[in-house]
Amino acid sequence: MKRQPGYRGLRHTSNREALLGAASDLIGTRGLWNVSIDEIVHHAGVAKGTFYNHFKDKQDIAHHVALGVRQDVRDRIARFKTINPDPAWRLSIALTLFLDLAVHSPKKAQILVTMLTDVSDVGAPMNARVRETLEAGLSTNRFSFRSLDSAFVFILGIVSAGIKSILERDIQGDTPELIGDLIAHGLIGLGLSSTDAELMATTARDQVRSASTSDQS
Fold first, then answer.
1. CATH number of the domain bearing residue 30
2. pLDDT tens across 8-40, in order?
3. Which stretch of DSSP H or E encloses residue 208?
4. Same domain for 82 and 17?
């Protein structure tokens, strides 16, 4: 029988979540260096000492916020995993969800692209699924690239630069088109034909949009 946490354990968890929520809101809006720990604890409604029970400093809490954001996106990607085994399609879904974050959750997207210090490490645990997708695409001749590291950095650049571009522009009607173009160019860079890449990008966008609509209904 699973033991339920006591009151102190529940409060401990609640305080940590409150701090993460406050950091996400403040840092996502104003940037890491324009927010103080005092402001985070005030926004969270906890004592300053409580902050240091959970995090070392601002960079530490921002890093954990970013990890949480990335895990949320990974969980959404997993929902599409069984629909189509094609590595190109699965990569298209992942790129769509990460880039779409800048449109629908700009605060989280801003933290994501600036705070994940291990994001470029192809061997990092958080990058395992992207690595597996690239390897699967290469082994089935769906993708063509010289090295896994270079392919990973290439895809990472599309995500990072794409999110920054969307965040820096006004949200306009052409944003979905920009996201589709970025995904298509990424797939072309991995060896797909222009026609195939555009089809994958469009299909992924439609699947994500359909799933979002279902979630809201």
1. 1.10.10.60
2. 444 567 899 999 999 999 988 888 889 999 999
3. helix 194-216
4. no
